[in-house]
Design goal:
This protein is α+β, with helices and mostly antiparallel strands. It contains 16 helices and ten strands. The strands form two sheets. A six-stranded antiparallel beta sheet has the order 6-5-7-8-9-10. It is elongated. The N and C termini lie far apart (about 75 Å). About 30% of the residues are buried.
Length: about 425
């Protein structure tokens, strides 16, 4: 038979129960193998109950000291009741000075005390009883998260100034640096907001006109890592130059914000818009495709494109790549059957082959092809070559690569590039 003897409004603070006539402290902590909360109990005395009922600070201190024992129990182990009982008198019945000394000799959960209003300065100096004088029954989880975030930064030697912290709050990355950044002006102290906006303006001016293209080789919504790195470097340099006192964490979060927003714009743009830059860059001499094309991948899947369709050939091709590209599917071909020519993209090798028919097969003989290879510089290089081929065929590619027909020569060139 279990009855609740004492509980506080916050359901997570340990309760005192009576179980078969014996007083016990009961708390939930950790999780079992099925991710369900675990519950632990251990015996206490009447004197302990009296302090728990009257002194919130001591109650919270006991909780923070028991939690590491619960963590040690893991998903299946038993709570070390002897160790838990040994905490009772030193924490609940000792003088404040003795409690402070005791806490210097045990493990305890600082975050729990911070969430319930502990004074951070006193806590850092080891004055745990004084730190809990203003303890609150209701927890502030965000305060504990910020405390842990600051401790992680301190461990790697980073100390934030007021502007650094404000910039991180603006991007929503104060607590977790891996969180996708956003713009949260309401999270910033109004007195600091103008300075934060000056930092953001510096970043926006630095990357104005830059874009991060999509990279269909890595999926339908993936973006070009090179473009990302290039934009990040530009923003980083401009912000450091204009605001040299900013901490690295603050500079990085601004770069992350600019790159993340640029990536989102690219992902959400129609594929034709995404192709504009590549097509405009290519020197195509005004040539326009009029014949159909066939797209295939390394798995034998084929897609036809017709000139009277609603979308451009390049848009259709890169969408095909984005849908089909995978670690075991990295070779894609564009073929113009009417002209007897095509290109084959080798994503695993950062290379491309152009293939032209030299002689049609007659009388059962196989056709004769000329195959020439060139190295490709990232997704931007692929986009340019595909656009050139689609609009002008293999002949138009002549000025857009160092073409090698000798396979061994090409492999040597590829190894030299990879070695660099």
């Amino acid at each position: 038979m279990r009855d609740i003897v004492f509980t506080r409004q916050s359901g997570w603070i340990p309760q005192v129960i009576s179980e078969d006539g014996e007083l016990k402290l009961m708390l939930g902590a950790g999780a079992d193998a099925n991710h369900e909360p675990r519950t632990f109990t251990f015996p206490i005395g009447e004197a302990h109950l009296a302090v728990i009922q009257e002194d919130l600070a001591r109650h919270l201190l006991l909780w923070s000291a028991v939690l590491p024992l619960c963590d040690a129990a893991g998903t299946r182990g038993r709570l070390d009741e002897d160790a838990a009982v040994a905490l009772l008198d030193p924490i609940l019945l000792s003088t404040p000075a003795d409690v402070d000394a005791f806490f210097r000799s045990i493990r305890w959960d600082r975050g729990r005390l911070v969430a319930h209003g502990a004074d951070l300065g006193l806590l850092k100096r080891g004055q745990v009883c004084a730190a809990m004088r203003a303890a609150t029954e209701a927890p502030d989880g965000k305060r504990a998260q910020e405390y842990h975030a600051d401790r992680r930064r301190a461990e790697r030697g980073t100390v934030l100034g007021p502007l650094d912290a404000a910039v991180l709050r603006y991007t929503g990355q104060y607590l977790h640096g891996s969180t996708v950044p956003k713009r949260l002006p309401d999270a910033v102290d109004p007195a600091l907001l103008p300075r934060v906006m000056a930092v953001i303006a510096t970043a926006e001016q630095a990357c104005a006109g830059m874009r991060i293209s999509r990279d269909p080789r890595r999926g339908k919504r993936a973006t070009d890592k090179r473009d990302w790195d290039r934009m990040a470097a530009v923003v980083d340099a401009a912000v450091r130059r204009a605001h040299p006192a900013l901490a690295d964490d603050a500079v990085r979060t601004v770069s992350f914000l600019m790159c993340s927003e640029a990536s989102d714009r690219s992902r959400n743009a129609p594929m034709e818009d995404d192709e504009e830059t590549s097509a405009d860059r290519a020197d195509l001499g005004g040539s326009t495709r009029r014949g159909p094309l066939s797209f295939t991948d390394d798995k034998g899947v084929e897609k036809k494109w017709l000139p009277d369709g609603p979308r451009s050939a390049t848009a259709e091709f890169w969408e095909f790549v984005g849908e089909r590209s995978a670690g075991d599917n990295e070779v894609f071909t564009i073929e113009d059957e009417e002209k007897g020519e095509g290109v084959q993209l080798h994503f695993y090798a950062d290379s491309l082959a152009r293939i032209t028919t030299v002689r049609e097969g007659r009388g059962g003989a196989d056709p004769e092809y000329r195959v020439e290879y060139t190295l490709v510089d990232g997704i931007g290089g692929y986009r340019n070559l595909v656009s050139v081929f689609v609009r002008g065929g293999c002949a138009a590619l002549e000025r857009h690569g160092s073409w090698m027909s000798d396979v061994d020569e090409f492999e040597r060139a590829r190894r030299r590039r990879d070695a660099r």
